[in-house]
Predict the structure of DUF4178 domain-containing protein.
Amino acid sequence: MASSAPQRVYRAPCPGCGAPVEFKSAQSTYAVCPYCQSTVVRSGEVLQRVGRMAEVFDDHSPLQLGASGRLPEAEGGQRFTLIGRLQYQGPQGRWAEWIALPGGDAEDGRVTLSEDNGSYVLTRPATGRELPPPERLPVGLATSVAGKPFSVAANLQAQLVAAEGELPQLAPLGQPFTVVELRSADGEVLSIDYGSAPPQVTRGRAIALQDLALQGLRDESVREEAARQFDCPNCGAPVAVQLDSSKSCTCPSCHSVIDLTAGVGGELRHAEQRNPISPLIPLGSVGQFEGASWQVVGFQHRMGVEAGDEEEESFGWEEYLLYNRERGFVFLVDASDGWSLVRPASGAPSYKDGTPLAQYLGRSYRLTSRYRAETGFVAGEFYWPVHSGQVTSNADFAAVDGKGILSREQAPGEVTWSYGQRLDSAAVASAFKLDAKAGLFRRQDAGPVGNVASMGCGTVVMLFIVLVILLILMSNCSGDSGGSYRSSGGSMGGYTSGGGHK
C-alpha cells in the first residue's frame, strides 16, 4: 500500500530565527516558518527571507497541516498530506485553500482543497487556451472551455491575507487581484486567478470530507474559546462567538448585528435592529438530517417583492443556517408552502436569463417566480457578513418531475445557485425533537395534501363550494394592498455570496 510519507525532504534553518523549515514537495518554492512567521523562498539549497506573513485567522474547518487522506478513485486513489494553507479576503469574508501533496512523491503533482460556500472543492492545476482579460468575463456570461459550456459565476477582487506551511506560489500579501469563477451544469468548477502572470487556472468538483478518509483532523475539544468572547460595542453585554469562521453575529441582548471581518480584536462595527423575531427553532438546537447532526447557528427573516409588482406587495420567509463539522453548512428554509433543506450548488445550472427553464445535474426545472429579496432581521452567526437591508435579485425554480427546487441569487460581482428538496413539516419537528410543537411547524407539506379518489362525493362537493366562496371573497378584496407570506419557497440559501472558494 502506498504511503503518504514524502520520499525526500529538504530541511534548512530559517533565515529569520534559525528554526528548521521543511519542504516535503519539490514543487514548493515558498514556506512560512512556523515559529517566527517569516516568509522564505527556496532557491536551490538556499533559503532567503522575503518578509513576514500574518498569522492565519483560525476558522471552522477541522482540517490542519499534516492531516492525511485518500483521493477518490476517480482522482487516482492516492494517499495525500496537507502541507500548506492560503487564506484570502474577498468582499464577503475570508476563505482558505489547502495545498495537498498526493502519493508521497514530490513529482506526483499538486491538489488543492478549496472552501466553497461552507463545503469543499477538490481541484488540480489546468492548462488550456489563452485566457481573456477579466473584464471580458462578466458575471452571467455563457462561454465554453474545450467545447464544454460554462457560465461565469463570480468576478471579484480578492487579496492574500495569511498563509502557513509550504506553498507552490505566493501572491503579494494584501495586494488585490481578480478571481473569476466559471461553473458548469454538471457541477464542475473552473477558477482563474489573475494574481500572477500568466493567470493560474484550477479545475475540479465538489467533495465531501467524509469521502476523503481523513486522519489527523483537528481535535475540536482543544479549541480555545476565550479569544472569541467580547463585549457588544452597542450595549456592552457579553457576546460569545461559537464558530471561528463567523464573519458576523448578533448580540443576544440588544440584537445588534456585529461585523467580525476585522477580527474580534479589531474595530467592531455594528448596526442596531428593531422588532426582533423569535425563531421557531431556537439557536443552538441540533437536528438530524441526511444521517448527520446539524446545529442551528444562524437565523434570518427575509422579505421579497415580485418583479414587476407596481404595488410592491411583500412576502416573507425564514432561513436557518445549519452547521456540521465535516459536511459544512446547509439552509433550512421555512416558507408558507412548506419546509425545504437546501445547499449552495458547486456547479451552475444551464440557464439563459429571461427563459423559463433551467437544467442541473440531469434534472429540468421551471421558473416559478422572480423577486427582489431583502434581509430584514438576523440572529446568530454567519460565515459571510450578513446585515439587515442586504438586497439580492432572486429567481426560484421547481423541478419538472416535482422532486426538487432550485434558486438563483445575484449580488454585485457574483451569482449563487442553490438546490434542495422539500421536507414534510412533521419530519422537521421530529428532527429537532419538537414533536410536541408539531402543529406550529405545519405548512403546505412536500407530499400530496390529499387523495381525491379516497374522498366521498359529499366531501368533494363541499370543497368545491368552499373554493367558490373563497374566490368571490378574493375578487372583492383584490384592491387591497399589504404584506403576504412567501408561497414559492423563498430564497434557497440566503445571501451566501459564494464565489468559487468561499
Notes: Residues 160 and 281 are 38 Å apart (CA to CA). The chain has a mean pLDDT of 78. The radius of gyration is 25 Å. The chain has three helices and 30 strands.
